[in-house]
Amino acid sequence: MVRSARVSTLPVRSFMPEVSPELSTPKTASSKSASAELLQEEIASSEGMTMSSATFGTRATCLAVIILPMLAVVAGTIIAWVSGSVHWIHLLMAFVGYMATGMAITIGYHRLFTHKSFRTNRFMTGFWAILGSMAVEGPIVRWVGMHRLHHQHSDHELDPHSPHTHNEEGIKGLLSGLWHSHMGWIMFAVPVDLDRYTPDLRKDKLLMFIDRTFFVWVILGLLIPGFIAWAVTGTIVGGLLGILWGGLIRMFMVHHVTWSVNSACHLWGPQHYVSHDHSRNNAVFGIFAFGEGWHNNHHAFPASARHGLKWWQFDISYIVIRLMSWVGLASDVNVPSAERQAAKAIR
Q1: Confidence (pLDDT) at 15
Q2: Which residues fall within 8 angstroms of residue 9, CB to CB, at 6 or more apart?
Q3: Quick one: how many helices (H) and strands (E) in the chain?
């Protein structure tokens, strides 16, 4: 069933690079700015957005992605309780998988593919895209399209996962918005013409190949920790527990940390910059979400590769990007100047 949503009259918010003079040459800045403007213009040219109810198959798949990792956490807890311990390799697989796929979402899916806050070579492009797919948050093109839509209409009617677009008030409204923004939105209305938000990605053959083979990377993301655990423990049960901890439980942790940026970071925390929405800086998720919790900073400067703009705002994703730049794996790293930060600062 297809329905038409009222077109927002708000000005289009930029989510593409605003080039930092400190980190780009004039020639690069001109080229990058022109490319960003053309993409922004193409995205903003459509007159409206049509929404469609998710199909039964889509809802069933999304529900499975939500419920199975939850059940895995319950199973892992029971097994650990009964056996009295958890093998170190299973905990290691969960931790390494959480760090690797979590940062692939923040560095790859978010800062590289969505906002183009830095550039990298084709190998690293594929590396981040594959690892991000293993996080099981959806194929690249849809993830990027939904996130760009979110930025264009942040906390207004067409924002797909805002906690502030419900009519209820009081505790009921808070809980309804929290549920919707955290994970309820995944199973409901989806934009029919989302492709108009990703013309750049759909021209990239490598990214489109990884997008089409999404489920291959999902399966590999589950099997690899199982194989490693089997090799270490020498038992089939050890291998299956590797899939449980390094696959499903790891997936649960990454999902809920990512979704908390959509929910908690639009509800709780201070606002340090003007962003025209309810985005907040939340220190808890600044740490556990690999720097994404400095969300008000991000919405004020969406194309910045650095989200933790203050010296005390720990942003491990930005640290990795800077390390990449030092060894030649990243370039054109975009960060707002001190003057631009001061101009948007809330006094």
Answers
A1: 54
A2: none
A3: 14, 5
